[in-house]
Write a structure and sequence with these properties.
alpha/beta, 7 helices
């Protein structure tokens, strides 16, 4: 039985199957974006940020992966997405690239730590991209949670690059909410949706640990407010955060 499961897993993760799954996901994501009738809340918060042309750390919760690409315009600035190094992250990476986003593999959860494979390289790539006026897309509770709890990576990248943090969310009426750890959302096509932009958050370049923790909590609150506003707008459920983690990596 174990041998059969191993062979099935190996088959699913083979290059041809990864390409197949990536193609389906990319097509689905593009359809969601193109066929949804969007309302926008908080445009007054993000328009001044776009007008500066400076770098941004764009944040949204992990549960909104399947439609998040619709939040950030494709013609404002180049977007660099961070995707985990897990085997399953392979086809997600291909799908993301198929819809026109750049990808760096690693983890924002321990982006400043060399102990996490690929984390330091990913951190440097994100900082460099933001410093050159790009947009870095991060799910601050990914890849494993706790749900709707900000880990330190996004705040570190913003501090190191001088970019602002932009909390966002989206919701689409009629979405399916999975019973996964993050309550992953599978949005329908031809739906009615909303994009929510919260106020930009700045991180002082000389911020100490106490200040960084205050910014982390501010970002967490802003992301939750944006998510709840989005779901309420389309009549979706109110998703609550998971238990707070006690073992977040300390900020260097």
């Amino acid at each position: 039985m174990r041998d059969h499961l191993f062979m099935l897993k190996a088959f699913i993760r083979s290059a041809p199957m990864q390409w197949f799954f990536a193609s389906i996901i990319a097509a689905y994501m593009q359809l969601v974006r193109a066929t949804t009738r969007w309302d926008i809340i908080g445009l007054e918060h993000v328009t001044p940020v776009w007008a500066t042309g400076k770098g941004v750390v764009w944040c949204y919760w992990h549960s909104r992966l399947m439609g998040a690409h619709a939040i950030w315009p494709t013609d404002v600035q180049e977007v660099l997405m961070i995707i985990s190094l897990s085997a399953d992250g392979g086809f997600v990476t291909r799908a993301t690239e198929m819809i026109g986003r750049k990808v760096v593999r690693g983890s924002s959860a321990k982006a400043g730590s060399a102990q996490n494979k690929g984390a330091l390289a990913a951190f440097r790539a994100m900082v460099a991209h933001a410093k050159t006026n790009g947009c870095v897309g991060i799910t601050p509770d990914g890849p494993r949670g706790p749900r709707m709890r900000v880990q330190d990576g996004a705040v570190r990248v913003a501090k190191a690059s001088g970019a602002v943090l932009m909390p966002t969310a989206y919701a689409i009426k009629g979405s399916t909410y999975a019973k996964s750890w993050d309550r992953l959302v599978l949005p329908p096509i031809f739906g009615r949706g909303v994009k929510v932009f919260g106020p930009a958050i700045s991180v002082p370049r000389d911020a100490d640990d106490a200040t960084l923790e205050a910014v982390r909590l501010e970002l967490e609150s802003a992301l939750n407010d944006a998510l709840w506003a989005a779901d309420a707008h389309v009549g979706g459920p109110r998703i609550e955060p998971g238990p707070a983690a006690d073992d977040r990596s300390p900020t260097p």
